[in-house]
Write a structure and sequence with these properties.
40% of the residues lie in helices and 15% in strands. With 144 residues, it is α+β, with helices and mostly antiparallel strands. The protein has a domain of 85 residues: Ribosomal Protein S8, Chain: A, domain 1, CATH 3.30.1370. The chain has a four-stranded mixed sheet with strand order 1-2-4-3, covered by helices on one side. Strand 1, helix 5 and strand 2 form a beta-alpha-beta unit. Helix 5 runs parallel beside helix 6. It is elongated, with a radius of gyration of 26 Å.
Length: 144
């Protein structure tokens, strides 16, 4: 009798199960995978916000190089489109204003627009790998 025969006899004695062992799945005894957990978490107060802060934007507008007037018009169209499509998060690329003498024109234009837009909610500058202070994220207020 070789090792293969011994292994086959041992496997035949084990109760058959459709479940994979922890070694096969790579799970520890404490780990449970719940595919609905993320959706349930979003309903907990504050979790939706945390999720959105880490999520990719639904749409991106690049106004780099625009005049303040053209940027404002583009922002109006962009936000109206976002509202009609029920978007939750936007990114606006406006640049850092390094080539402007004085204050950054587009950065200030975006800031003023967000302050005046009735359905623009929380906003802030992107992480450095997404443009840093040259790009702004905006969470939109959702009508319930």
């Amino acid at each position: 009798m070789d090792f293969g025969d011994i292994l086959n006899k041992w496997e035949q004695r084990q109760p058959q199960s459709n479940k994979q062992s922890n070694m096969e799945t790579g799970l520890n005894n404490n780990e449970i995978i719940d595919k609905d957990a993320n959706e349930q978490k979003k309903n907990i107060p504050g979790e939706k916000r945390r999720h959105l802060l880490n999520a990719k934007p639904d749409d991106i507008l690049d106004i780099h190089g625009y005049t303040a007037e053209k940027a404002w018009i583009s922002l109006e169209e962009f936000f109206q489109n976002a509202k009609s499509n029920d978007y939750e998060k936007l990114r606006i690329i406006h640049g850092k204003g390094n080539h402007t003498q004085g204050e950054a024109v587009l950065k200030n234009t975006v800031r003023k627009f967000i302050e005046q837009c009735g359905f623009a909610g929380e906003s802030g500058y992107e992480k450095s790998n997404n443009g840093g202070s040259g790009a702004t994220w905006v969470l939109l207020k959702i009508d319930k």
